[in-house]
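To close the chapter, one final illustration. This time we ask the reader to focus less on the individual chains and more on the assembly as a whole: which components sit near each other, and how the overall shape emerges from the parts.
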Amino acid sequence: MKIQRCKGMRDLSTAEMTVFRLVEGICRDVCSGWGYQEVRTPTIEYLHLFTSAGTLTPGMLGKVYSFLDWDGWSGERVVLRPDGTIPVARLYTESLQGRGLARLFYAANIFIFEEVGEKTRERWQCGAELIGAGSAMAEVELIALSLEVLKKLGLKGVELRLSHAGLIKALLVKLGLSPEEQNKMFDRILDGDAEALAEVSRESPEVGNTLRPFLSRKGQSPGFLRDQRALLARSVPEISPHLDDFLKTVALLDELGVKYQINIASGAGFEYYTGMIFQLFIGKEKVGGGGRYDALIPSMGGGDVPASGFALYLDRLMDLAKSEAIVGPVARRVLVRVKSGNAMKEAFKVADNLRRAGYTAELDLDGKKTDLKWVIEVQSEVPTFTLVDNVKSRRVDFETYNEVLKQMEGEGGDKDSPA
Amino acid sequence: MAIKIALPKGRLLRKTAAVLQKAAWGLDEYHSNMGFYRPRSEKFPDVLIRVFHEKDIPIQIAMGNYDLGICCLDWIEELLAKYPSSDLVKVRDLLYGEGALYVASTSVPGDLRQNGAPIRIASEYPNLAETFALRKRMSRFSIFPVWGAAEAYPPENADMVLLSAKAGEELADYGMVPVSKMLDFSAFLIANRNSWETKNLDKLVASICDTLPEVEKKATVREEVGQAGIKARKRAVKAAGDTVRLALPDGHQQQPTVDLLNRACIEVDDYPSETGNRRPKINIDGVTVKVIRPQDMPLQVANGNFDLAITGRDWLTEHLDQFPSSPVKELLDLKSSRVRIVAVVSRELSVDDTGGLRQLIAEREEPFRVASEYVNIADKYARDNHLGHYRVIPTWGATEAFLPEDADLLIENTETGRTIARHNLKIIDTLFESTGCLIGNAGTVSDSAKNRRIEALVKRLRAAVEDI
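The assembled structure is written out below.
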């Protein structure tokens, strides 16, 4: 019987892992460049971290891997991390509270049960959280940071879509829904149901007529929001503060020359969002998203700390990223072969020296033909070393390791051999 | 291949038997709850019929062990709540066995979303209870899965229960008010998805459906549950902090427990109770008694809902195998209700020990199926004995009926071994011997008066046991 991997789970092959590390490395480098520091939270958390009102939508909670662990006699369940932001907010509340501004980033796997299709149930994401800053500039920093990562990955055609959770909530109140219905509708919108808002606005014709243009139109400049404010300020005064908040961010993006599209109804994201929401698309593929979540840390007892953040979906970026664009330096590989039995110690020493010199040195274990350019054969009698060049089918003997190295360096490494 | 159908024991047996009689199935032995698990049909002699505990049927259908089954919607939804992609098709509402699932409480609860101490929900339907908690956006909750007697838990031992009742009024008898109605249910004909798509089940399905009234039942209007008209019965005042809470078992263990209490000169009024009273009075000051399922006691003691409980070592072991860090411990061997927990296979199998089992498993492709009421004991047994690629099938009694078709190994309790022999099965291993035992919480009790009471009670019971 052949043992298979668990349904919905994915192996990353050696080639995929190479791309993964490169993509992750670019995320890490860019985040570090902006002053973000890496954190890692545990894979398992208490379920109640995610069930607290205002953290995850019931739609998402219905898909978490929750179970009773060895301590589960209390009846409280634990869960495989279904989201990256909430644990980081928990970590901040638990150990960084009171330290002021924190720029944190992580690369982590999250687990979401998907019933159908090819979707994998374990996904990788890289996220940045900017905790302790409530300004529009902070939001723009995150957007610029995420765009820089995508640019460094060589990705073109990135579309930035903006919405605003506070604005959506204010509109839902205006649409005359009960608090329960408002919550449900907000969750539907966040779960990606772009039709939800249009649907209720039809049911409430009076308000609907005023709001429909706002909900259906898409804007690409602060002018759009200003027009809406002029139009709605009198009939729906409640939305003004949210519109103003949104305008500040949008105006800054304009100043920086960042292109975006405003689409209020498409606010897909997390229930913990309270302000600006952004989504990143390449073609039809969503590759990341983020937003402001000022209520999350207070709800965990972490004090009145504003925060915002984003996550990029590593699995999708791996598929999209042109590997040529992100290829890093590849170590030159050399095979070290023991020609006579008692030269083993010398072979280990040569391999060790090669590694110090920046080569990848592999010991030959099976004596089979290799497709590597360089092979160094080691024997106990002089001449101790034979350098085999498989590309030029040439063999040269040397007495010392340094001569071998010199010869290889002189030939310019093994750039014609497969990496 | 022969068509296989799973029929329910218990609450649905009588009406299911009536439907099948109307459908002229001519069943030879599907009329009582006693020990017959393999009825035959005159009309459909080729059809393989097995009788299961109702709760087992959706699992058997979803796993594909059976093509068709009859059980109530509550158990179907309980399975689907946790495993929504199960291969189970609801074929037809059979319009009998009606009831409803209610979430109930002794008082109307406040804001469920608040942070703070977890809200405790006791239920035979833990998956649906979790769905309810998530839907209500409870931020912290603990689900206590129970084997039964959920209605006995509030208000001291649970804040809410999810239970089945014929009507909301029934809850008033338990002194509770409905918080929410989760589901109206009745008996359903269900099918395995693959069988439904590939096998010819039409004759069987038609014969059952032809007996039903033509019109489908009208969908019941979702009853908004209010508090009007139903008043919560006043509960006994909350037990003082130094009161010792003792859990006594219902079911088979009642008689040996009564004998023990008699020997210890402890009087408990109305136990066993003919009226289903779960709160009998005890003649010791500072001690209260509740009657619950022995299966549920270790978890309740671990959670500090009870200080002492009389259960079986089998259920204590089951609990500790699942939660090794649990603070529950055995205080006293009551030396009653002696059974052996054994590993059982079909007599047809040429296997006599665990070594033989391992060899058998190594030679086969499909996973090895272990059926048991003791899911965690069975799991540990399979792990400890390196049974390779195995699956544990949880059952709710009548486990002998699973061999040989629907499981390969049982972990069962037996007193004499006669039931096992009668079902053409054999014992290949004894895991341990189980007797009644008194359990308590190893965590320290801060109240010294309470501690003295616990010690005094244990001492009295110990003397009674040693008296034998």
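Confidence is low (pLDDT under 50) at residues 413-419 of chain A. Residues 14-33 of chain A form the longest helix (20 residues). With these observations in hand, you are ready for the problems at the end of the chapter.
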